[in-house]
């Protein structure tokens, strides 16, 4: 998993459409669920559930297959039907990801968000699919560094339905203490130097690397800015790689999981002297809070017979499109 240099495996379009069908058929009512406003200032943005909790206790390069429900905030970002980046649930309408996943030349309407997903080819019982309402890119993105300010807030068109397998993660506050922590990264990116990928969500435990050491390893202080942090197992070649961009780096604080990083960039997969670089979530915490609190929620029409028929027709059309491609 090492990030801004590329995207994940380009698996065929047909499995992607089938996955969408599997999600839509059992849960067409998701888009019609009544909405509520996000929570007030704090590390949590939902009044419905506590953030940073999970009910399952225990390839990224050097990683292992993740169990369903172990990382309930994990998001798969798809573009034009393909998995391209990761993300994390931070509220009923909000996903946190990397800005470079949403480059200006991309059509926002072509993005889809999947939650409750472990295998990219198989929709699970808790898998939900969402369209994107808007994407907010941090104003310092690419201003002071080619990949600086690499943070994005994605607002969904409809609210996420929380369950044991779909939950938000807490956001690191500005004053978080990151000393002596070992954290976890998750994603569907490359799992080897040769670019091999896995359809199954991968997890890996990574120690944080102090900024002075990370700057030394990269050879220049200007390469690693204060809005970044580094993590990686330099000895055992455990890191993140292409396709993991935008995914979460989380640490456990007193039995609560907090996101401290967003997979951003690196010099390549599995090069032990170059740890992966993440957007430092605590640096952007106030910006995240401000926009979640002040961005209007998307309009939610009341459920009607016509809206149900509309979903049914949409599924049938997609089914016909898939059938014609087989």
UniProtKB/TrEMBL annotation:
It is an enzyme of class 3 (hydrolase). Keywords: Disulfide bond, Hydrolase, Protease, Serine protease, Signal. The lineage of its organism: Eukaryota, Metazoa, Chordata, Craniata, Vertebrata. Pfam families: Trypsin (PF00089). SUPFAM superfamilies: Trypsin-like serine proteases. Homotetramer. Its EC number is 3.4.21.59. The keyword Disulfide bond applies. It catalyses: Preferential cleavage: Arg-|-Xaa, Lys-|-Xaa, but with more restricted specificity than trypsin. This is tryptase. The gene is PRSS38. Transmembrane segments: none annotated. It comes from Catagonus wagneri. CDD domains: Tryp_SPc (cd00190). The keyword Transcription regulation does not apply. Gene3D superfamilies: Trypsin-like serine proteases.
